Amino acid sequence: MFTRLVLAAAVLLRATQCYKPVIVVHGLFDSPGDMVILQNFINESHPGTNVTIIDLFDRTGSLKSLWSQVEGFKQAIYPIMQNAADGVHMICYSQGGLICRGIISTMPNHNVDTLVSLSAPLLGQYGDTDYLKWLFPKYVKTNLYHFCYTHIGQHVSICNYWNDPHHHDLYLSSNNYLAFLNNERDNPNATEWKNNFLRLQQLVLIGGPDDGVITPWQSSHFGFYNENETVLEMKKQLIYRKDTFGLKTMDARKAITTFTMTNVHHTEWHSNKTVFETCIVKWLT
User: Fold this and answer.
1) Does pLDDT of 8 surpass 80?
2) Which residues are annotated as catalytic?
3) Which residue from 58, 128, 156, 235 could staple onto 31, CB 3.0 to 4.6 Å apart?
């Protein structure tokens, strides 16, 4: 009996030692408390996993410019990476998905194995949502570019990924975050950032048509509107066709997995067990 208990304990210990640490980055107006259910899902499925929900830029602090958030998160995440010889996984929700893109692209020595992007506006946002009405009561989607595409506007996180398809030239000349991440603007670090992005082993893209916030919802899959507000999927996007930051290369090595989940509202992605079991858990080994 004692021998069996020892063997069982050894097997359990060995299993927990195999799980890479998981780093969670929250979204707009969130805080670590909003991610606790996700943390519980991970601990239940993979006992002993070191899960860290980064406690930075909570609530209204999430409105700060994305580059300032990237720098803050990098400082908090780097020690976790240093202590993880086999690498880490990242689960990044909503705006956090864009922050994690910035972290990965600008860290030449990162060891992120899998990036799980959970309903993130990866190619930007263009929609009249409740968030927009609350933040910018005097604006709608058709005229928000007047504020976002200014020096002041670029100090607000949402404007860092506001992507007005009817004013693409202004987006390219004024946006100082997403346009640089996508290497749509001249960037002396373009090659280095692309190589950093390609250090990822797996990219998991999760989103769905009932999200209600990410607009178009296909932005969570690197799709977006053209000038006629027709959604073009990832492979038809110029950034993919020109492989500006490595998306096409990563797809060619079959390192991109896309999930479309229905009946999930934007605020439910990180607490929906079906989403976790279908789309996330198998990547966290």
Assistant:
1) no
2) 94, 211, 266
3) 58
